[in-house]
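Q: What residues go here?
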């Protein structure tokens, strides 16, 4: 607001207060460093002579002038008493929200009571109570929904446990009426033993395993000899050739050893 007031030639020493809105529906602004909002229709900066400061409020004399001035045909005097006593239900019954906050009742009040301020504060309190009530209702509904969900899950668990128990009892009855459970366990143990024996028979004998190992060593020895011959032909480095020769010698020794062991086992 300060920017607008400076543009309009505002003189703080001549103007005793600032009012946002009209002289009847407006309200005093304590500081010009406040924003202009979409409901700001005008700014008043009157002098003391133009708009004197209202005197302190006095007791209501029940003259009825506020009711005569009310354009909405309400009972401002009665609503004032309810607002002072925070009787919000009675305020709503007397159509508090029909009040347009024109300020006519406050303007004509001989006791200088700021009636509109009481109505505004009561409206704000009622709206806050409604929001709190809606929030509490929402929380209650969520709690009840959670309780129903927990009860349903517990009921489903009980049904599953009962079904499993019933199935176990049925299996027990079938086993009692049919084959002997002890004999069935013995048969299962025999079947496992037979399967284990067949697996052992399917494994190769030591001689067959020795021959397979000897064949693998001979294949490795043949491949190493071919690689050594290729390295000599292409002129590889001496270190490479020496390493290959050492590999060939080691594999040759292993092959001879394996052949000796296999021959000993066959003679035996």
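A:
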């Amino acid at each position: 607001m300060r920017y607008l007031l400076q543009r309009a030639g505002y003189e703080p020493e001549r103007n005793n207060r600032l009012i946002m809105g009209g002289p009847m529906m407006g309200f005093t602004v304590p500081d010009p460093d406040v924003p202009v909002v979409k409901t700001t229709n005008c700014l008043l900066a009157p002098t003391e002579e133009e708009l004197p400061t209202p005197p302190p409020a006095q007791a209501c004399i029940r003259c009825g002038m506020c009711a005569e001035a009310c354009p909405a045909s309400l009972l401002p005097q009665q609503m004032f008493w309810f607002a002072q006593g925070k009787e919000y239900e009675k305020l709503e019954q007397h159509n508090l929200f029909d009040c347009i906050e024109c300020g006519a009742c406050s303007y004509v009040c001989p006791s200088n009571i700021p009636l509109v301020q009481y109505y505004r504060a009561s409206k704000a309190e009622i709206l806050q109570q409604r929001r709190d009530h809606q929030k509490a209702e929402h929380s209650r509904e969520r709690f009840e929904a959670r309780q129903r969900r927990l009860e349903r899950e517990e009921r489903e668990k009980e049904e599953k446990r009962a079904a499993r128990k019933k199935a176990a009892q049925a299996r027990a009855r079938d086993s009692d009426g049919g084959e002997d459970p002890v004999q069935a366990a013995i048969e299962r143990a025999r079947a496992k033993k037979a399967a284990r024996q067949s697996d052992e028979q399917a494994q190769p004998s030591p001689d067959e395993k020795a021959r397979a190992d000897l064949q693998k060593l001979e294949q490795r020895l043949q491949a190493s000899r071919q690689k050594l011959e290729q390295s000599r032909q292409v002129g590889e480095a001496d270190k490479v050739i020496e390493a290959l020769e050492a590999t060939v010698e080691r594999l040759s020794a292993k092959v001879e050893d394996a052949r000796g062991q296999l021959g000993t086992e066959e003679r035996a």
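A: Context that may help when evaluating the design: The chain has nine helices and three strands. The beta strands are 18-20, 27-29, 43-44.
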